[in-house]
Design a protein that fits this description.
By secondary structure, the protein is α+β, with helices and mostly antiparallel strands. The chain has a domain at 34-85: Fe-S cluster assembly (FSCA) (GMP Synthetase, Chain A, domain 3). Helix content is 41%, strand content 25%. The chain has helices at residues 13-31, 60-75, and strands at 34-42, 45-52, 81-84. The chain has a three-stranded mixed beta sheet. A hairpin with a 2-residue loop joins β1 (34-42) and β2. α1 crosses α2 (60-75). The protein is globular. The relative contact order is 0.19.
Length: 85
C-alpha cells in the first residue's frame, strides 16, 4: 500500500470570508495610498496589519471602525471588533 500524502492544511472558513470582504474594500484603501492585511481572526476579533499611507494616518481608526468593521459585522454577525496589530 503506498504511503498517504499529507493533506493540504484547510483554511479556516471564517478567515476566508473575512479576507473576501476586506478584498472588496481594498481598492478604496489603496486609492488613498494604503493597504490592509488580514492577520487572523480570534474570538470574534479581526486582527489586521496596516500598510503604506495607513500607518500613522489619523483617519485609520475611522477606516477600521466605520469602514471595515461595519462591513464585516453586516455580513458576519459573529465579528465583534477589529484591531491593528
Amino acid at each position: 500500500m503506498p504511503p498517504k500524502e499529507p493533506s493540504a492544511p484547510k483554511r479556516d472558513p471564517l478567515l476566508a470570508e473575512v479576507c473576501e470582504i476586506v478584498d472588496l474594500l481594498r481598492p478604496d484603501i489603496q486609492a488613498d495610498g494604503g493597504d490592509v492585511e488580514v492577520v487572523g481572526v480570534r474570538d470574534g476579533i479581526v486582527e489586521v496589519r496596516l500598510h503604506g499611507a495607513c500607518i500613522g494616518c489619523p483617519s485609520s481608526g475611522m477606516t477600521l471602525q466605520h469602514g471595515i468593521l461595519s462591513a464585516l459585522k453586516e455580513r458576519i454577525p459573529s465579528i465583534t471588533d477589529i484591531r491593528a496589530v
